[in-house]
User: Which sequence fits this backbone?
DNA sequence: CTTAGGG
DNA sequence: CCCTAAG
């Protein structure tokens, strides 16, 4: 009767390979190629462009194959029960379906993993020379982990098995974490997919290799985190942080220089086989095609203009569905995952201080850590950088004499998420849960960070040229990162947003939260890993700042019905998990405060207008009326905002903080407030009197 | 679930 | 924003 087992999935950020589509789109529209005229393209513009595409474009993307895909997916998972669940889920409309359509699910990823592996081995002809080796090499603990989890999920394996796997995983673990990319799928071809993932991986690996020398810690292997107990099983799935910088596409076999390598030397083939064989044999037998048919995934097979072969990078279109109905929201609200206070990993917290004349941050490692720090923190168990690291195999293609700089962002990584879901939950719910988590993050607001030559470029007004990004710059020096945007993101980054979007603000990073209360209940302990790796890393990374923990904000806002809590979780080392007791079982640990999203003027405007019309006692209606598709604004939020608005309107302008609200709006606030207060007073007067009369 | 308020 | 008491 009890949900004895729970599966916890921690995503150290799965990669969202969104780019090809966006990139193409950008290119098509000439955005990316914007001419670097006299002033050159301002980095800010670039950011805005990327962010805009990423966040907004998806909305219009129709998807007609969602259901089909979903079924296919279901097919992959053989387990009848699962299938049923899947089908059921499929029937659920709207949002759920949307989720399917987006192909954002773990299960998918997982199920595909095996396939990928196999494919790799089976597809010798893959063009990419690098693939063969790197790919195998790349099979990392992450992959293993995922598979493992997948397996469990699918088959409901016992925790014991998991343990076994985990151990295996550990042994085999290698340094690559780009597994997620592997999951990219297209109905069209296995190869492509594989190739893609491989490449992606390769690049990552390369990055790893490259950075390993510099930042060894970062690349330390992350053992899969696995905790088992009678009651629940928690798996932390994470991908290795991608290097925060982009590396040129690697065409040659890349040698992994990771430390992990040594350990995982044999990993190449090994990891795959194990998983494949043990975990999801059936899965792999299935035609890949079926698995993958998502409109949102596009392959970018074409070689670019310059003739550079684009590894078929697939893109996933990620977007936040703004049309989610209120009801849906409500339901989501039902499963509020708790947020806990996080420690600040302030990699960027010092940003302001770092503003340098040239606009480039002086801290060299800083960004690299976008990933690194994230991972490091994760490993340390401290906090995770919410920052998503991005990396891109991005490379630019230059053309002689052409002043344009072309960027190709292979993929963005989503901040790590932690999912805690009952074993008996349906796959559909798992999918939804993850989708919601991802959606919360993506929809909640992201901003793009630019890292160039290992430094974060903070000056948005600087031109690419001034920054040093010219057509002939080193291709490997540019990277982009997704960072939670503390500022309202609903609006496209525009001129007025500059200040908001700038890196000046301390980015809020998702943190991984160790042991949620559930864990406690289950008796499972999540260890906080202080593993050397993590520690050293963190030290290394955060030398300048962040000695103190800072609050992390959960990017997630909702949880699906079955899931208990979604919290950003830093990857925890398996070892740590296995033995370490929870720090403080306080629920606070499992709870994360929602990310702060200051109301924009336009939102205030909408709010004021709605309240003028509806009054101050009908927040739900106000929500419906003016913020129906702002999933992150609850009626309570609106009510609170109104409260603060009233307060703001009453204080002197000098005392006001934050984005200034037009006085006109404040006046309306006061007027409306006065009016409705009066109305309310009348109501109250009336009621009592009547009552009184009756008596 | 909504409201209303305090924290 | 969170948390809660109340309805």
Assistant:
């Amino acid at each position: 009767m009890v949900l004895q087992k729970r599966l916890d999935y921690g995503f150290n950020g799965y990669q969202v390979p969104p780019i090809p589509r966006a990139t193409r789109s950008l290119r098509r529209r000439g955005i990316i190629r914007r001419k670097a005229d006299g002033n050159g393209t301002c980095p800010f513009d670039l950011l805005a462009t990327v962010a805009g595409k990423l966040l907004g474009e998806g909305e219009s993307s129709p998807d007609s194959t969602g259901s089909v895909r979903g079924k296919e997916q279901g097919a992959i998972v053989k387990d009848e029960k699962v299938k049923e669940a899947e089908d059921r889920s499929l029937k659920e409309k709207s949002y759920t379906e949307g989720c399917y359509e987006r192909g954002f699910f773990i299960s998918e990823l997982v199920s595909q993993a095996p396939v990928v592996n196999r494919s790799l081995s089976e597809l010798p002809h893959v063009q990419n020379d690098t693939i063969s080796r790197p790919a195998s090499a790349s099979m990392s603990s992450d992959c293993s982990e995922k598979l493992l989890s997948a397996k469990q999920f699918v088959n409901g394996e016992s925790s014991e098995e998991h343990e076994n796997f985990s151990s295996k995983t550990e042994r085999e673990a290698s340094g690559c974490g780009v597994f997620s990319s592997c999951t990219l799928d297209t109905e069209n071809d296995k190869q492509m997919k594989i190739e893609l993932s491989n490449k992606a991986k390769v690049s990552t690996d390369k990055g790893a290799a490259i950075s390993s020398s510099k930042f060894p810690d970062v690349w330390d292997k992350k053992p899969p985190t696995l905790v088992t107990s009678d009651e629940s099983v928690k798996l932390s799935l994470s991908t290795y942080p991608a290097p925060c910088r982009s590396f040129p596409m690697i065409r040659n076999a890349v040698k992994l220089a990771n430390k992990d390598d040594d350990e995982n030397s044999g990993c190449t083939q090994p990891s795959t086989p194990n998983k494949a064989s043990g975990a999801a044999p059936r899965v792999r037998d299935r035609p890949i095609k079926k698995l993958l048919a998502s409109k949102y995934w596009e392959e970018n097979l074409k070689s670019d203009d310059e003739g550079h072969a684009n590894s078929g990078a697939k893109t996933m279109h990620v977007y936040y569905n703004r049309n989610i109905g209120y009801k849906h929201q409500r339901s989501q609200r039902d499963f509020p995952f708790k947020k806990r206070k996080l420690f600040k990993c302030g990699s960027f917290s010092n940003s302001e201080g770092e503003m340098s004349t040239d606009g480039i941050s002086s801290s060299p490692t800083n960004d690299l850590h976008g990933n690194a720090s994230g991972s490091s923190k994760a490993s340390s168990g401290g906090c995770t950088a919410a920052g998503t690291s991005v990396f891109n195999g991005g490379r630019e293609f230059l053309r002689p004499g052409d002043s344009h700089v072309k960027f190709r962002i292979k993929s963005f990584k989503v901040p790590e998420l932690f999912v805690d879901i009952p074993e008996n939950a349906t796959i559909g719910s798992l999918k939804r849960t993850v989708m919601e988590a991802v959606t919360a993050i993506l929809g909640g607001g992201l901003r793009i960070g630019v890292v160039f030559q290992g430094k974060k470029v903070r000056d948005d007004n600087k031109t690419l040229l001034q920054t040093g990004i010219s057509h002939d710059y080193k291709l490997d020096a540019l990277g982009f990162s997704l960072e939670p945007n503390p500022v309202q993101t609903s609006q496209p980054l525009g001129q007025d947003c500059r200040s908001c979007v700038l890196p000046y603000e301390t980015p809020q990073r998702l943190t991984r939260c160790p042991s949620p209360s559930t864990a406690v209940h289950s008796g499972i302990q999540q260890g906080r890993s202080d593993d050397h790796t993590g520690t050293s890393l963190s030290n290394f990374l955060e030398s300048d700042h962040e000695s103190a923990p800072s609050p992390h904000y959960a990017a997630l806002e909702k949880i699906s019905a079955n899931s208990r809590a979604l919290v950003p979780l830093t990857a925890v080392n398996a070892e740590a998990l296995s033995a370490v007791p929870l720090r403080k079982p306080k629920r606070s640990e499992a709870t994360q405060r929602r990310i702060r999203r200051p109301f924009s003027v336009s939102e205030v405007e909408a709010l004021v207008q709605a309240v003028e019309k509806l009054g101050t006692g009908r927040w739900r209606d106000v929500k419906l009326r003016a913020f129906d598709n702002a999933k992150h604004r609850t009626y309570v939020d609106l009510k609170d905002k109104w409260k603060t608005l009233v307060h703001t309107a009453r204080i002197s302008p000098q005392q006001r903080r934050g984005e200034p609200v037009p006085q006109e709006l404040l006046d309306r606030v006061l007027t409306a407030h006065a009016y409705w207060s009066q109305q309310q007073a009348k109501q109250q007067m009336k009621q009592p009197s009547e009552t009184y009369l009756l008596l």
